[in-house]
Amino acid sequence: MLTVLSQFDKGELLLDKKSYLDREENETNIELLKELLTNQIELFKEDGGLPSDITKTEKDVDEIIDLEMKMVKIMDADVNTDPQVYHLRDMRKLMPLVDWSQFFSAVAPFDSQNYLFSDPEILVVDPDYLNRVNELLQSTDSRIITNYVFMLFSRKWSGEMGEKYEDVEQEYNEMMYGQQRKTQRWQFCTSTAIKKMSYATAALYVKKALHKTTKKDTLEIANALKKEFRKILNTSEWIDDDTRNNALNKLDHMIRQIAYPGFILDEKRLDKYYSNLDVRCNDTFSEMVEKVTQWQTERFFEQLREVQDRFVIFNSAHVTASYTQGTNSLRKLTALTLRSFISARGCF
C-alpha cells in the first residue's frame, strides 16, 4: 500500500528537447513547428471572425518558440538536485508567482479542500527548476506567456477541432514523421478511450482476448524469474554482504504487475470506481472527453486522501514488459501475454 503525493515536475513541450538543444542540426524541425503553429493560429482567427495578419502571427509564433527554447535550457541546466518532499505551503517560496491557494481552490473538488488546506506533504522532483522557471516568467512579457499557454491548451484538443485542423496536423506529421495519411477517426477515438478509461477498456479487452489461465501462468513465469534471481544473488561471490542483503530485501518487496488488476473483472467494483462519472449516449465525443478529464482530476484529488494499492495502478491495455526502478515493479501487461506477441522460440 502507498500514499499518493501531489507531484510537481517539468511540463510538456511543443517539440522534443533534442531539436532545441541542437538547433543547427534540427532547424528543419523547428521551422516545421513554426509553420504548424502559424497555420493553426490563422485558422483560429478565421473561426473567430478575426482579420488575418500573417506577419503578426509569425512574430507571435517566433516568441512562443523562443520562450520554449528558454524553457528547455533551464530544464537541461547542469544542476544535480534530487526529488524532495516539501509541504504545500513551501510552494509559495519555491514559485511565488503563483497564488497556490487560489489555484487549488479553482481546480480541486470541494471535498478535497480541507485536505489541501491542511498543508500536506508534496513531492517536488526538481526544486531548483521551479526557481529557474520563476525567474524566466518574471523576465517574460505576460502576453507571450498567455499565447504560449493558449497554444499548449489548444494542442491538447487538436483532435477535437475539426477536419481543417486535422489536415494542417497531417501536413506536419507527414513532413516531420513521414506519416502518409491521417489517423482514422475510429483509431483516434479508440486510443482516447483506452487512455481516458483504462480500467473499463482493459476489462473489455481481457474478457474478450485473454484465456482464464493466462494470468496464473504468467505469474508463475514471474515467480520463476524471481527465484532464479535470488539464486544468482545468493551464489555470486563478487557481491559484498551488505549489497546482497539490500538486493534480497528489494527482491522480497518487488511488485508484480502482471496482465491486469483483478478488480476490473468484478463489475460491482468497476462500477464503484467509475460511480461519479456521468457520460450519456447523446453526449458529443468532445463532451465525453471533457467529462472524463474532469472526473480524472477529481479522482486524483480523492486519491490524495486515500491509501492506494500499488498492485493496481497500471493500464493493462498497454503493450509493455519492463522493470520500473522507481516503484520496484516487474510489469508484464495483458497484450504481451497473448500468443501473437510470443514467437515459436518463446522470445518476446
TrEMBL record:
Q: Which GO terms describe its molecular function?
A: metalloendopeptidase activity
UniProt superkingdom: Eukaryota
**UniProt GO BP:** protein processing
Q: Which GO terms describe its cellular component?
A: plasma membrane
| Record-linked InterPro entries | MetalloPept_cat_dom_sf, Peptidase_M13, Peptidase_M13_dom_2, Peptidase_M13_N
Q: Which residues form the Peptidase M13 N-terminal domain?
A: 7-261
By sequence similarity, the record places it as follows: Belongs to the peptidase M13 family.
Question: What is this protein called in UniProt?
Answer: Peptidase M13 N-terminal domain-containing protein
